[in-house]
Amino acid sequence: MAKDLTLLLIIALPLIGFAINGLVGKKMPKTLVGGLATGVVFAAFLLATTLFSGLHGTQIVNLFNIIDFEQLRINASFQIDALSVWMTLIITGIGSLIHLFSMGYMSHDEGYYKFFTYLNLFIFSMLLLVLGSNYFVLFFGWEGVGMCSYLLISFHYNDAEKGLANSLAGRKAFIMNRIGDVGLLLALFMLLGQFNTLEFLQIGKALETNTALQGGAMIFITLSLFIAATGKSAQIPLFTWLPDAMAGPTPVSALIHAATMVTAGIYLTVRSNFLFELAPFTKDIILYVGLATTLFAAFMALRQNDIKKVLAYSTVSQLGLMFVALGFGAYTVALFHVTTHAFFKALLFLGSGSVIHGMHEEQDIRKMGGLAKLMPLTHFTFLIGTMAISGIPFLSGFFSKDEIMAQALHHNPVVYGVLVLAVTMTAIYMFRLYFLTFQGQFRGGEALKSKVHESGLSMTLPLMVLAVLSIFGGLLNLPGLFFKGTAHWFDHYLSHGTFGLSAVHNAHLDFSTAMGLMLFASAIAIGVFIWAYLTYAKKGATAKADDALTGWEQLSAQKLYVDEIYNTLFVKPLLALSDFIGKVVDIQLLRNGVYALADGILNTANLTRKWQTGFLSSYLFWMVFGLIIFVAYYILKLSVWH
Amino acid sequence: MALILLPLVFSLMAWFVPSAFTRLFGLFATGVALVWSVVAVCYFQPEEQILIDFGLRFVRFSIDSLGFTMILLTNAVFLLVYLSNFTGKIVNDRKFTALALLMQFGLLGVFTTNTILGFYIFWELTLLPIFLILYWFGSFDKPRALLQFFLYTLLGSLAMLLAVIGLMHATNQQTYEALLVADINALGNTSIWLMGGFLLAFAVKIPLFPFHTWQAETYTKAPVAGTMLLSAIMLKMALFGLLKWVLPIFDGVATDFWRWPIITLGLIGVVYGAIVAIRQSDIKTLFAYASLSHLGLIAAALMLHDDNTNQIAVVQIVNHSIVSIGLFLAAGIIEQRLGTRQMSELSGIAKVAPRFAFWFGVLTFISLSVPFTAGFIGEFFLIKALFNAHAVTGFIASTTLVLGAVYTLRAYQVPMFGPSKFASFQDLNWSEWLVFAILSVAAIYLGLAPQCLTDFVAHSLTQPTH
Questions:
Q1: From the CA of A441, how many Å to the nearest CA of chain B?
Q2: Do A496 and A598 reside in the same domain of the chain?
Q3: Checking CA distances to B398, which of A5, A393, B181, B236 falls within 20 to 30 Å?
Q4: Which residue of chain A is at minimal alpha-carbon distance from B406?
Q5: CB neighbour class for B193 (10 Å; exposed up to 12, middle 13-18, buried from 19)
Q6: A519 and A624 part of one domain
Q7: Residue A151, in any domain of the structure
Q8: What is the pLDDT of residues B383-395, one digit of tens each?
Q9: Interface contact flag, B117 A635, Cβ < 8 Å
Q10: Which is nearest to B447 in space by CA: B312, B246, B289, B296?
């Protein structure tokens, strides 16, 4: 099949699933709805693998013109290259696993067909985002995934208990994303102003020949793009929506808020590498924002007791880590971590979903414990996910994280030091989560314990596949020191097939430093594992109630009070301003001013007493009548005069 | 000509229709008008324009592609207003039907007249029916609320009348084509004053800050059908007047003088309307302020007087009509079923009326200008045009993305989500459903293929001016 046709089919399939389920899904049996939704995404994945295997250079597929003005043409066109195909593989591959998982997870939900409709729409939007060949199509997808995210976060808006909170969480996510979108919008305008096109390749080629376009303009453009990235990828200062977004059903958290959508900001930066390379200042900003985010988010995760909240802060932290890599200009390294993170974080979220499902909607780890025996498959895969993210040697996270640490050590030892702290905290909160959930005694009471069950095959199968990927994902990009022949496959793949990346080179450490780095990282991960085993499994330490916490524990549990600070600094003043303008300026000043004027006119004409006694109709009539006479007079006069 | 006169004939006939058939008659009349205009547009060559000239001095009409767009929009809006109120009482009143159809005639006149005086006369002609509709069918407890609207309008109209007379006097011309080639710039400061007269009338009607205070109160207290007519089509007269008449004619000294003051007022409206909307407790008032915000953006962008921006502005004008019919219909449905518009009294409607929740949700997203809707294209290119004019104006305009999300989602979520306060809520009936569906299809179509509209109106918007 021709590549362009394959590409269009990949995009069209989720759209077809969306349309069918949206229109007639309500009347179809559940298995058909879920099967169709899963099937189209899986079919898209299979097609994407053919694109992957036949990948050769960059190909543009132009569908139609969205806008075709004399000076400006914007096409609905798509780009097949190493980066877009790789993202497509992640989205459709992990996407189909999560669709499959949802068939089990959502089986009792009355909004079943709606859920799959939204999910397919999301996949479609996400594919637009990564496959577009210009920033406009990307923006289409960018806004589209934001809308789907909103719909899916507030999916259970009718819930008697949490309905309101769910819908507020959705709103918060949408609004914070929109703040980032303003950045993207402004970046697009500036790009249009500078290059008169939004096509990635054309902009990149224009920059190759025109070296004058550096400095100020590039800094503004790249900073605006980065603001957009902080919104979508939950970085400081726009990260607070992501933990709240856990209000959505767990498969949504896995798909949108861990594996795919939140990595859009990293994709945007990698895609725009030729712009960022011209703005070292912006790269520094990215580095420090990423660094601060990875550190603070890891800290906040230390004392969360909601199984999904721990994973949410963990996601924010891991995304920060990816931005650190971007700040060093190590684009392929960042994308390697995007990939492995997609494997193990999707696994962890789905695992937590399986736990929540088995625990009958309980999410508090203080009521869990000992689930290893009750849910063996979930336990085993969750442990693999935990080990992968914590950097236990030879699992996927170990390799991808090590690459980032290596970049940091090469460029800036202080950054490396901070990362060590963040990575240590990551291992701490993950093993704490694991031990409190799966080991020790069950703390949810006997009644609940008797009802806890392992999930069905549609849920455990995706867990097993993701576990395998989490173990072996590191093989994609093995370090050069042991595996000379097969090493750095992913770096080569991406940098040779993506515009701009072949000009960027990652730092490489000498053998002994690299070796020492790995040993040190392994020591941290294994050390934390042993510490956590001793603390939680042997001594049986449990999580304290939130109000019993003091000092740093309280700060962590209360998320450094960032929400409260934002409330005081932004939300409340905006509402007060709205009240002030609405009530004082608009009504008292402007409207009553006009009233006073009207009364004045009426009083002067001494009409009030006579006319304002309810006979508005006649009063209106006279005014209109007068007007007509007036007009008629002028028409006559003008006609004569003419 | 029949295209324009048809509503007038129907309006007169409406007085003689038995009251049992009034609603059907209204639907029939607006339906015929729409079908007629659709057929006419099929035979229309956009490169040319239809000239209707009786040899009378002031009565001349010409229909170009922009005019046709507005005719189609007008006729579609009237049919949709009828459909959406089809089960209400108001459309069964022959006074309303006769007045609405008269207004339709006036609007068609405004959009097709070829003389500047004709523009003024038809402009005034649309006022009488809307006043009477507001007076007879509105809930204005105090006359001065309605009087406010009236005074504002009167003030604007007087200013425009003086400007029309002045313009005719100064140029000794009165047809559109003659005014286009007249040397307005030679008038110097006089041209600034003349344009100012028009702008004052338009500022009231668009509305622009600070001439907007009549809007919220009038929208809130008008019957839903009246609010729809006002916001979906009647206030578009001002944007049309700016686009078709004032900006091309006064191109030069006067436009340069007024450009930044009007852009400033428009952008103040964008931010001001949005901020005020955030805390409104009445859902109809909230949408009124939202309208102020949306229209400020279009007005500001129009002042740039750039061909492509003008074309996109037409897309956004149509989009705003779609959004305002949809949102005011939703507000009307809530008010009709529950007898309240206060957000604090509303909650959980989605649970008892899922179909309404779905379609109101779709319209909410259309109003939020998400991708695949006309507003996405419209907002993107209008803000881009403002950004190109000056980075700061672009930035201010782009705040609408964020603030719009704040108030629009609140307007949707508070009544629809959360625990259900109402045991029952009659879900959409067929005519309401049909209106929502038509609006959504139109918005999505324009969002995917805006070029069909921009190319069509380009024929009248890209004429070489002097």
A1: 37
A2: no
A3: B236
A4: A175
A5: middle
A6: no
A7: no
A8: 999 999 999 999 9
A9: yes
A10: B312
